[in-house]
Design brief:
metalloendopeptidase activity; Dup_hybrid_motif; alpha+beta; 379 residues; extended; 11% helix; 3-stranded antiparallel β-sheet; Glucose Permease (Domain IIA)
């Protein structure tokens, strides 16, 4: 775990745009978003088509409902939460029906009291999701065309579906996951739950960065202009050398880099078996290890259970957080013997291999949200 108990996503490239073959920074600036509007004295933000309430420190669905004057069970069911569940400061709750507006107009207008509510009440669920990209077997749902954002005005409202994460939703709308988290009070881990309503940040109206000046183009047949050599424009600096007499007489011994090498990244094979599907970036973000059903799945290294969830096929997934912002993912498991928040030690049994044809363990190693080949980490 990172020192000081900080978030595992500190220093993370929230837009996932670094690295070769991806968008340049100038293009990423086109997707900047505005700040979320300020709520009224009750914590309510009103838009023409819907309203949301912003939770305060120590709030629950019951306290928010009492403050805005709405039925507690109705508000909790609409947002797929338990009435007594604690809310994060700044977290958004969608109001199932319109209440009287008392504050200034937010986001382009106010509808009269009694306007029809937007959306249908989802079934109460509580699904925790990992803030990493989805496993290769999990298809990321794409919002229908009717939910694509417009520039300015009322933000689009998105209801989280099973298998979605804050990162997949942000990429679907071409916005920053950090902005999505700030607008909806998702907390440092960007946790979302099935049935939750999110408001999508509105694109900034700031002008795009100016295009670079065009380079001069020579006429056909005249050849390309020859650039001026650097030495012709500016003399080389005077060379300063140290006389041999003043050079150090003794060369210090080279450090033993082998003795200083950290072994914190060395991991234990979670199960013993052959690799039947190797790592392939973007295709298989981990390795598949063949093992009989019921084989004990062991923690690859010391760490803390960060999440226990399921993919769209209801296959259980365990995520363990380790030092140096490393995450390990174990999918295709059954008989889970740990819970979220538990400390686990290297080699500790955390689950068993799920029955299948064939049965295998899917194992991933991630640096933050970015997958990497697990083989170099294993002994």
């Amino acid at each position: 775990m990172p020192s000081g108990g900080g978030s595992p996503f500190e220093g993370l490239d929230w837009d996932l745009r670094n690295g070769p073959g991806v968008l340049a920074t100038s293009e990423a600036a086109l997707n900047a978003t505005e700040r979320r509007p300020e709520p009224d004295s009750r914590g309510v933000i009103s838009y023409p088509g819907y309203q949301v309430a912003v939770a305060r420190r120590g709030d629950t669905a019951a306290s928010v409902a009492a403050r805005v004057g709405i039925n507690t069970d109705e508000l909790a069911r609409y947002n797929a939460i338990i009435p007594t569940d604690p809310l994060r400061e700044g977290e958004i709750l969608a109001l199932p029906r319109r209440i009287a507006d008392t504050g200034p107009v937010q986001g382009g207008g106010i509808l009269p009291t009694g306007s029809p509510s937007v959306g249908a009440s989802p079934a109460p669920v509580d699904v925790s999701t990992i803030a990493t990209t989805a496993l290769d077997r999990v298809g990321t749902p794409t919002p229908p065309a009717t939910t694509r954002p417009s520039t300015g005005g009322e933000p689009v409202r998105h209801q989280v579906r099973r298998g979605e994460t804050a990162f997949s939703i942000a990429r679907s709308y071409n916005i920053s996951a950090k902005s999505l988290g700030e607008w909806n009070g998702l907390g440092p881990n960007l946790d979302v739950r099935e049935g939750q309503y999110l408001i999508i940040p509105v694109a900034s109206s700031a002008p795009p960065p100016s295009a670079p000046a065009p380079q001069p183009v020579s006429q056909p047949g005249t050849g390309s202009p020859t650039p001026t050599p650097p030495s012709a424009a500016k003399p080389l600096p005077a060379e300063r050398t140290t006389p041999a007499a003043t050079a150090p007489r003794e060369t210090p011994a080279s450090p033993d880099l082998g003795a200083q090498r950290s072994t914190s990244t060395k991991m234990l094979m979670p199960v013993q078996g052959s690799i039947i599907r190797p790592y392939s970036k973007g295709r298989n973000d981990g390795i598949d290890i063949s093992a009989p059903a019921g084989t004990a799945v062991k923690a690859a290294a010391d760490g803390t259970v960060a999440a226990i969830t399921t993919d769209t096929a209801q296959t259980p997934i365990i995520v363990v957080r380790h030092a140096d912002n490393i995450l390990t993912v174990y999918a295709g498991v059954d008989g889970i013997s740990v819970k979220k928040g538990d400390r686990v030690s290297r080699g500790q049994t955390i689950a068993a291999v799920r029955a299948g044809t064939p049965s295998f363990l899917h194992f991933e190693v991630r640096r933050g949200a970015d997958s990497t080949d697990p083989v170099p980490f294993l002994q």
